[in-house]
């Protein structure tokens, strides 16, 4: 697969396709400029529509259900959260050879934060903890199960397979024996046995927006639902430096077992992402390497 082709079955995208979809279904916006927005996202392509909107189109069939999920839940979640989240202003149907539903959202300003280049890491940690705390305090009936909300043990087979893939990539410099030992230790810990809580469940840097170092928005709720609160701790290792990580941990107020599951989940995601995206998505691969270094360094220092 090429750098443009991250997944098997990925649908080809282009400005002309988006213009045709808009003209055919949302003609009130047909005269607005359309331009591809560069993103490290893995499930959707994004196109700016004028200055105030963004078109979001699933790249693969598996992302199509996210459209209806966000359509149902974003308006209900928005008033309960301290941070701006996407507001859908239009929904499209399959057409012009494009096979899945798609969405138009108001544009949210801000930039994606980058690990190692945070202007206010401790303040950002507090903002993230506030968002996580607000999410897990939500009580809305009929919630879906979060995409990553299940038992940690459900990740075991795929995580071990990824470690073996990395073992065959010595240029990545991963100590696969040490990583395996850390993962095996995580598998011996008890699973979450409390009630499920609301989660965003995909708090990657690419789904966060910051301005002047502070959190201004959280986007991409395609994984949202209820599950293990450890699934919401990813920023501790995929974004925050050690000092701010401690601030985040104190503010989210989770027990040791939940913190340890969160670290293991973040490590698993990175181990799986690195061999898959190393040639097709530089942002995802770079963040995966960062997570592996952070988790392993923390484990060795313990």
Report the sheet with the most strands, covering strand number, pairing sense and barrel closure: 5 strands, antiparallel
Question: What is the molecular shape?
Answer: globular
Amount of beta strand: 5-15%
Q: If classified by CATH, what would the architecture of the largest domain be?
A: Alpha-Beta Complex
Order of helices and strands: HEEEHEEHHHEEEEHHHH
Category by helix and strand content? alpha+beta
**pLDDT averaged residue by residue:** 94
Rg is: 19 Å
Helix content range: 40-55%
The name CATH uses for the topology of the largest domain is Aminoglycoside 3'-phosphotransferase, Chain: A, domain 2
Quantity of strands, as a count: 9
Low-confidence stretches: none
CATH class categorisation of the largest domain: Alpha Beta
Q: What is the quaternary state of this protein?
A: single chain
Summarize the structure in short.
The protein has 302 residues and is of the alpha+beta class.
How would you sum up this structure, described in words?
The chain has about 300 residues and is an alpha+beta fold. It folds into 2 domains: about 15-105, Phosphorylase Kinase, domain 1 (2-Layer Sandwich), CATH 3.30.200.20; about 120-300, Aminoglycoside phosphotransferase (APH), C-terminal lobe (Aminoglycoside 3'-phosphotransferase, Chain: A, domain 2, Alpha-Beta Complex), CATH 3.90.1200. Helices cover about 40% and strands about 15% of the residues. The protein contains 9 helices and 9 strands. It has helices at about 15-25, 65-75, 120-135, 155-165, 175-185, 235-240, 240-250, 255-275, 280-300, and strands spanning about 35, 45-50, 55-60, 90, 100-105, 195-200, 210, 215-220, 225. The strands form 3 sheets. A 5-stranded antiparallel β-sheet has the order 1-2-3-5-4, sandwiched between helices. A two-stranded antiparallel ribbon has the order 6-9. The longest helix is centred in the last third of the chain and has 22 residues, at about 255-275.
């Amino acid at each position: 697969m090429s750098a443009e082709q991250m997944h098997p079955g990925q649908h080809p995208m282009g400005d002309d396709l988006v213009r045709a979809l808009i003209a055919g279904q949302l003609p009130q916006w047909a005269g607005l400029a359309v331009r591809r927005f560069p993103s490290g996202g893995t499930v959707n392509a994004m196109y700016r529509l004028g200055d105030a909107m963004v078109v979001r189109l699933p790249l693969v069939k598996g992302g199509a259900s996210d459209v209806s999920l966000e359509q149902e839940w974003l308006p209900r979640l928005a008033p309960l959260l301290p941070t701006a989240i996407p507001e859908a202003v239009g929904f499209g149907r399959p057409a012009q050879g494009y096979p899945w539903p798609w969405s138009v959202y108001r544009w949210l300003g801000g930039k994606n934060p980058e690990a190692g280049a945070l202007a206010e890491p401790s303040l950002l940690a507090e903002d993230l903890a506030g968002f996580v705390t607000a999410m897990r305090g939500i009580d809305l009936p009929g919630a879906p199960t979060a995409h990553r909300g299940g038992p940690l043990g459900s990740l075991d087979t795929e995580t071990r397979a990824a470690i073996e893939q990395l073992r065959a990539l010595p240029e990545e410099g991963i100590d696969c024996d040490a990583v395996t030992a850390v993962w095996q230790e995580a598998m011996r810990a008890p699973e979450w046995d409390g009630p499920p809580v609301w989660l965003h469940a995909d708090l990657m840097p690419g789904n966060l927006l910051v301005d002047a170092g502070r959190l201004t928005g959280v986007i991409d709720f395609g994984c949202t639902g209820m599950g293990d609160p450890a699934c919401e701790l990813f920023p501790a290792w995929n974004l925050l430096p050690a000092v701010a990580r401690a601030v985040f941990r104190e503010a989210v107020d989770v027990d040791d077992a939940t913190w340890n599951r969160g670290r293991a989940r973040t490590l698993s995601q990175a181990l799986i992402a690195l061999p898959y995206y190393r040639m097709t998505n530089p942002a995802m691969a770079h963040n995966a390497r960062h997570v592996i270094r952070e988790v392993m360094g923390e484990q060795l220092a313990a």
